[in-house]
Amino acid sequence: LAHLHADAVRLLQRWDAPDLAQDFLAQAFLDLLLGTGPAAVHRHGPPGHLTASAIVLDRAGARVLLTLHRKAGRWFQFGGHLEADDADVHAAATREAREESGILDLELAPGISELSIHDLPPTFGNCRTHFDVRFAGTAPAGAGHAVSEESLDVRWWPIDDLPAEASPDLPRQIAAARRHLGLG
Q: Which structural domain range is residue 8 located in?
């Protein structure tokens, strides 16, 4: 996992955060990574560790593809833990988005879309806090999606009419993804 740790540190050090809040989060991520070492990128590392995720939009940026997470019972972006065979953090987010959406040719834009730190309920076991590096991408036109074993459902939602059970930070994530992709 040393290669993922080194990539995460490099990615965060080079990232030009869009505002002070995201700059503050980038520093918190770096503090975790530099203070904990490679264990900070492993699901069985400390209770607070790095994850990678992706907001998937349609080409117009008017709809977002979300997963109804089986454990949480809420609608989220695609994402999860890094794995040793991931080439880098971006590849981890791409793998997670492909696995959870069923869109095998999904590509994510380079560079961080946004960062988030969020706490998890006890149903997530050792995981207590995810330091989530978020990327963004658009689904290929006409791409079909599928429900993975981690989800109860996968569905397109208008960005201005999200489900009631959506993660409260989804509007912010979508806005960041649209900016990152040049869609708004």
A: 2-180
